[in-house]
Amino acid sequence: MELQPIKAKILAVRIIPNADLALAQPFQLKPHQRSLAILTCTIDDVGYTAMDEATKRADVEVVYAKSFYAGASHASGPLSGEFIGIIAGPSPDEVISGIEAARNVIENEAYFEAINPEGTHSMYAHVVARTGSYLSKLANIDEGTPLAYLIAPPLEAMYGLDAALKSADVQLATFYGPPSETNFGGGLLTGTQSACRAAAEAFKQSILEIARNPISY
């Protein structure tokens, strides 16, 4: 079947030009990091990917990024969604540049894909050509390293990860054991760009196989 994109929506964005010192402490801001940009969106893994892109496009650092429990359907308010990300930088211009880069990823580049027509069964198989500081830290890899960001429902994620790892010369850098805060699972795989793309495709195909025959083993 042809997979349909499920795109995240940005729900709210705010800039704090000069953060109060009391707020700087819990985020462990460096002395030069006085400005913050805060973003919420409806899909957490897309949000994490977007925050990483911000670090490549501006002089910013991701100082806070969290998924909300149970997902966007059970959010605490209409502007909460499934994810909150906060970047810090030396000036409002820098954090605005960072948040605009993140916005472009959310609106145009990174998305889940629907496995069924209703969109209730989905997966995320996104290849990051070169990581920024945020995903590099999560995966314990050098900045600029290719990464396959693979997420799916619990059983599908475990089966898909195995297929991805066997399909190409990739290594499991970070494992997300199910259930995550949003009841998914998956991992970050690293290798060459071509290997990461092959792994992502194997992940997709294995999950499509499960969707076609869920109890045929």
TrEMBL record:
One family name in Pfam for this protein: BMC
Gene responsible for this protein: eutL
Task: Alphabetically list the UniProt keywords.
Answer: Bacterial microcompartment
What name goes with this protein? Ethanolamine utilization microcompartment protein EutL
Q: Where in the cell is it found?
A: Bacterial microcompartment
Indicate the segments forming the BMC circularly permuted domain, all copies. 1-111, 113-217
InterPro entries listed in its UniProt record: BMC_CP (IPR044870), BMC_dom (IPR000249), CcmK-like_sf (IPR037233), EutL (IPR030983), EutL_PduB (IPR009193)
Per the record's keyword annotation, is rRNA-binding included, yes or no? no
